[in-house]
Design goal:
Elements: E1 4-7, E2 10-13, H1 20-30, H2 35-44, E3 52-56, H3 62-69, E4 73-78, H4 81-90, E5 103-106, H5 109-122, E6 133-136, H6 143-153, E7 158-164, H7 173-183, H8 197-204, E8 208-216, E9 219-221, H9 224-232, H10 238-243, H11 246-257, E10 267-269, E11 272-279
Parallel strand pairs: 3-4, 3-6, 4-5, 6-7
Antiparallel strand pairs: 1-2, 7-11, 8-11, 9-10
């Protein structure tokens, strides 16, 4: 049964996981919430012409698009084929311009690295293909992927990994915890990031820490329906929907969001995100 959201006396059907409508919800509602994080990192790293960005877990490509708008050359990698297809449609060169076609890898960070190495082996342009900046704004890479990345790129390439800030500084925390509580121990996702988790990940990957930053990324929605659709589009609730009744997931999610419902019907949740800058 397709779940429905009951709000203001009407029922709205919610899109199923993996559907085109779910993808649109991510691209049109939720993804933009992280724009302040993307822009803060690009500003700090002086991203622009001459920068070659490798975006790990690039999703539907908004972060890559912002880098391309700054003049950077971009290459994205993601395990979700549907999101990657949409990224390809949004990026410069999607219209078929030969020298600007977006480079996208369907797979892991390791597969993206292998693709870069294979391209370099036959490249005769002399311009270089290896990234000068690696970002992980989506799913965090594994330590072994960072180790392989360091070996492939050589010394000195900046790698930026990002995640949630302290739970007490993120108004969305109770809503997100609904997912783990209803999924149960067997299917629950990772718990909230600890204070030094990003730094520990970088060190375990053999990277040298250089600095960190915090960025306010408020989640603002036009109404409760948009808030629910946006959060469900992250995929964080899929395990909860499989483990519990769909209506129960929606009920508890709406209850968790209700304290952030404003008089004009909008939903507003201040959040803090963190990022760490390290080098190979």
């Amino acid at each position: 049964m397709t779940p429905t959201l009951v709000h203001h006396q009407h029922r709205t059907r919610l899109p199923a996981a993996g559907s085109a409508a779910r993808m649109r919800d991510w691209a049109e509602i939720q993804e933009r919430m992280l724009v302040p994080l993307y822009e803060a990192v690009y500003e700090r790293m002086e991203t622009g012409p001459g920068t070659r960005v490798l975006g790990l877990g690039c999703g539907t490509g908004l972060a890559l698009l912002l880098a391309a708008d700054r003049g950077a050359d971009v290459h994205g990698a993601d395990a979700d084929a549907a999101r990657l297809e949409l990224a390809g449609q949004r990026l410069p060169g999607a219209d078929g311009t030969p020298d600007q076609a977006p480079r996208l890898t369907h797979g892991t960070a390791l597969e993206a690295i292998e693709e870069i190495e294979a391209a370099e082996a036959v490249d005769t342009s002399g311009t270089g293909l290896r990234p000068t900046l690696v970002t992980a704004f989506g799913a965090l890479p594994q330590p072994d992927e960072l180790v392989r990345l360091r070996a492939a790129l050589g010394r000195g390439v900046p790698v930026v990994v990002a995640g949630w800030g302290p739970a007490e500084r993120c108004a969305a925390a109770p809503a997100l915890r609904v997912a783990n509580r209803l999924a149960g121990p067997a299917e629950a996702g990772p718990d909230w990031c600890g204070r030094d988790d990003l730094e520990e990940l970088a060190v375990r990957g053999g990277l040298r820490l250089e600095g960190s930053g915090r960025v306010a990324c408020p989640f603002g929605y036009a109404d409760m329906e948009s808030a629910v659709r946006g959060l469900l589009s992250t995929g964080l609730y899929d395990s909860a929907v499989r483990a519990a009744d769909e209506e129960q997931v929606l009920k508890e999610l709406v209850e968790a969001l209700h304290p952030h419902l404003r008089a004009d019907g909008t939903v507003w949740m201040p959040n803090l995100f963190r990022y760490v800058v390290a080098r190979t």
